[in-house]
């Protein structure tokens, strides 16, 4: 058992990380932005005692001192998993809305650990394929964790803001390790599009996390006449992403100093739509089915990059779920959301 601080516990991915940590016997304090959000998580885990699951309120990770109190605990933390970071497109100012919380949140928590939590030996951060991709590469290029998104500060705008926020935040974390030489090691988990069942509290389908919006739109009729564009054509199931975080936390010796590109492979929104029709025939009227309607969700004619996920399998021992299982479980979970 390890005493772990998990940031952003109300999020789509973090909720699965929390469940995986609890199942594997760890003791977790998770940060949330309000007591109300803590209460929803408590209610979802009625039989878990306070020494196994507790909360710290961190309202805004863009503030550099946001984590100063949260990193201090009795018993003290041994590991920190930092997932909190904005992932949405409701952005008016990419620096304020995306870059500041991503970068300050990451640097802020590392500084706070170094200063006030000397028992922490390992930190796992949720980075992204956004920090790996270089869209200028030819379609034949094979991406792995050896690659870095070359985006520069001068290229930050509304369209690039999210990818920049993840790239700069992860770079800042590795720079911190190199320059500050703290008493802990670092691992980064770099997933592409994350699909999978929703286990965190959702008041309505309107507040669904960004990467599952496509599935919501495919089952509600919102995409009946036009399948959403896929965007990035690599995907991974949220339960595998969660397990990757936990394995990186547990296997400190092997995972220290490493980035991990976590992907199950290629997919398209057209494939997601086709699986939904096959598995949920009762939803057929809501899902795009004509060639014209499906086309926007298809692979690009020039093809899409290759991938190498060997390190995640060899070092972490990950095995990946298939797209059909992931889509079926996502749809079932969304059909359960009222409103
Ligand atoms: P969610 O939006 O569900 O989770 C984001 C979490 O970050 C929430 O807990 C949110 O709190 C918290 N957060 C955001 N901004 C702030 C802030 N300023 N102050 C405090 N907390 C904040 O998204 P995901 O679960 O999908 O994302 C989790 C992580 O995974 C992020 O780092 C994201 O970049 C990364 N990622 C996600 C991918 C995906 O496809 N889903 C792919 C690759 C990486 P609240 O809910 O209260 O707003």
Automatic annotation (TrEMBL):
The keyword Cell division does not apply. Belongs to the NAD(P)-dependent epimerase/dehydratase family. Dihydroflavonol-4-reductase subfamily. PANTHER family: NAD DEPENDENT EPIMERASE/DEHYDRATASE (PTHR10366), STEROL-4-ALPHA-CARBOXYLATE 3-DEHYDROGENASE, DECARBOXYLATING (PTHR10366:SF564). It holds the Pfam family Epimerase. Keywords: Oxidoreductase. One of its GO terms (molecular function) is oxidoreductase activity, acting on the CH-OH group of donors, NAD or NADP as acceptor. This is NAD-dependent epimerase/dehydratase domain-containing protein. Residues 4-259 form the NAD-dependent epimerase/dehydratase domain. It comes from Helicocarpus griseus UAMH5409. The keyword Ion transport does not apply. InterPro entries: Epimerase_deHydtase (IPR001509), NAD(P)-bd_dom_sf (IPR036291), NAD(P)_dehydrat-like (IPR050425).
């Amino acid at each position: 058992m390890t005493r772990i601080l998990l940031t952003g516990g109300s999020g789509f991915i973090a909720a699965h990380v929390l469940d995986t940590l609890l199942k594997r016997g760890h003791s977790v304090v998770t940060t949330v932005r309000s007591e109300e959000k803590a209460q929803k998580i408590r209610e979802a885990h009625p039989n878990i005692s306070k020494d196994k699951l507790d909360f710290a309120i961190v309202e805004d990770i863009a503030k550099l001192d946001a984590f100063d109190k949260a990193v201090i605990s009795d018993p003290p933390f041994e590991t920190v998993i930092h997932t909190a970071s904005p992932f949405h497109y409701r952005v008016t100012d990419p620096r304020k809305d995306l870059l500041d919380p991503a970068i300050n949140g990451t640097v802020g928590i590392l500084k706070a650990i170094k200063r006030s939590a000397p028992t922490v030996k390992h930190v796992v951060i949720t980075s992204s394929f956004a920090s790996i991709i270089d869209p200028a590469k030819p379609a034949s290029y094979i991406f792995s964790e050896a690659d870095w998104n070359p985006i520069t500060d001068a290229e930050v705008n509304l369209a690039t803001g999210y990818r920049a926020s993840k790239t700069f935040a992860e770079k800042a974390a590795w720079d911190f390790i190199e320059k500050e030489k703290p008493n802990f090691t670092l691992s980064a988990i770099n997933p592409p599009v994350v699909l999978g069942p929703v286990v965190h509290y959702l008041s309505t389908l309107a507040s669904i996390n960004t990467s599952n919006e496509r599935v919501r739109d495919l089952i509600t009729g919102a995409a009946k006449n036009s399948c959403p564009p896929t965007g990035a054509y690599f995907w991974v199931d949220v339960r595998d992403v969660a397990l990757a975080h936990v394995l990186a936390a547990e296997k400190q010796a092997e995972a220290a100093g490493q980035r991990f590109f976590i992907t199950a492979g290629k997919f398209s929104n057209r494939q997601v739509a086709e699986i939904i029709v096959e598995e949920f025939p009762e939803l057929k009227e809501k899902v795009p089915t004509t060639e014209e309607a499906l086309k926007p969700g298809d692979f690009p004619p020039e093809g899409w990059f290759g991938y190498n996920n060997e390190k995640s399998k060899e070092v972490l021992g990950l095995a990946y779920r298939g797209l059909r299982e992931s889509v079926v479980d996502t749809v079932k979970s969304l059909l359960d959301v009222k409103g």
